[in-house]
Amino acid sequence: MAKVSVYNMEGNQVGEIELDDAVFGVEVNEHLVHMAVVNQLANKRQGTQSAKTRAEVSGGGKKPWRQKGTGHARQGSTRAPQWTGGGVVFAPKPRDYSFKMNRKEKAAALKSALTSRVLENKLIVLDSLNFDEIKTKKMQGVLNNLKVNKALVVLNEKNENVILSARNIPNVQTALTNTINVYDILKYNTMIVTKDAVKTIEEVYA
Questions:
Q1: Does residue 165 contact residue 134 with C-beta atoms inside 8 Å?
Q2: For a disulfide at 150, which of 73, 145, 184, 189, Cβ 3.0-4.6 Å?
Q3: What are the angstrom distances between the C-alpha of 149 and each of 178, 184, 192?
């Protein structure tokens, strides 16, 4: 089992914690990680883009000029794609970009992402993270103590004071253990997790 240091909000090391290899020590599967990221981004797409084909634009019922004898190239409609105001060739239409991943594939991708954070020393475990008031300055102070500027902060339970204190800090996002995903884990330079959150993640995914 991998051992990582546990820090307090002042940035001082207060102990160590052993991470379960079944979650934080698996073989990194880059293909599944890539597929999970693509899956999440594709599922977010609205797919509402649309343009009109030559069959849908108005006008163009009359042939512009006779077939032969004018010196011009033959034309059948002023709504053809080469005409100003004409339809679009292979016009985009509303579609669903989402696709499904198997539950085991999702879990394996998440474990791979968590393992990559450990291997790259980008996982910081806090003994606790709690504020008695909503104060952005306090949250920024914790990040400064940990020497972090772009982080995903994972909490075990919803804590309004922490969530709202971090909300206005650029490049910082909070998440609960049941909402973490591969894209967010890889998007941020560092993953800050409370001890309780680590235990919950291990119980769910081990």
A1: yes
A2: 189
A3: 24, 15, 11
Question: CA of 48: how far to CAs of 30, 93, 95, in Å?
Answer: 31, 7, 7
- Give 79-90 pLDDT, tens digit per residue: 999 999 999 999
What is the bridge-based pairing of β-strands 190-194 and 151-155?
parallel
Q: Are 20 and 140 in contact (CB under 8 A)?
A: no
DSSP secondary structure letters along the chain: -EEEEEE-TTS-EEEEEEEPHHHHSSPP-HHHHHHHHHHHHHHH---------TTTSS---S-SS-SSSSSSPP-S-TTSTTSTT-PPTT------------HHHHHHHHHHHHHHHHHTT-EEEES----SS--HHHHHHHHHHTT-SSEEEEESS--HHHHHHHTTSTTEEEEETTT--HHHHHHSSEEEEEHHHHHHHHHHH-
pLDDT tens across 107-120, in order?
A: 999 999 999 999 99
CA distance 117 to 198: 13
